[in-house]
Amino acid sequence: MNTKGLFSTSALAVAAVAIMLATVAATSSPSIPYIIHGKVFYRNGTVCNGSMVNITNMNNSNEWTAKTNASCNYYQLMLANGTDLNASEVLQFYVTSPDGEQSKVLSHVVTETEVNNGGLFNYNITLEAPPGTPFIIYGWVHYNNGNGTPCNGSSVNITNMNTSMHWQAETNATSNYFQLILDTTNVSAGNVLVFNVSDGTQFNTTNHTVTQSEINNGGLF
Is pTM beyond 0.85 here? Predict the structure, then answer.
């Protein structure tokens, strides 16, 4: 009997089974949940039942509508870390009251701590009554080094040269995303916006003329 041959065949069989089991285990491994929940309130602090809560991942353009209820101001959305989002990505919340009279747009950068803890909890939102049609400006800041390296936590200042109004966009130290929420009382078609962006040592100044199409679409994206 050739024991060497039998031993070799047995080893191959064991190896094949091990690979098959490893493959099955990897395939059946569940995604880590990332749960977002909180409550929505009207501008005066009273509960806003049955609100509409839409959430967009600004990095991959995925969009979701959170679960709400007509008799409660609570909302919840269950996502999957690594599939729907990752740490450092930006979530934009667009929340409206049932009658559409009050709304709120805000952004949130996903943190590693939230991912480890399983989500963004008790993220309460208070609505506003905007005086005009929203005009949202957002984008990402990169270094001009040929590689497009993200510039996190930059300072983004925007001036309307036609009205001399000046604003500082919202930024975050862990992301290169910036956002500024205005409305049509602040900006009109034909206005020139000057962007002054800096990381403290490097800077860039860019002019942009607002178009009617941007006004109609609700912003500069």
Answer: no
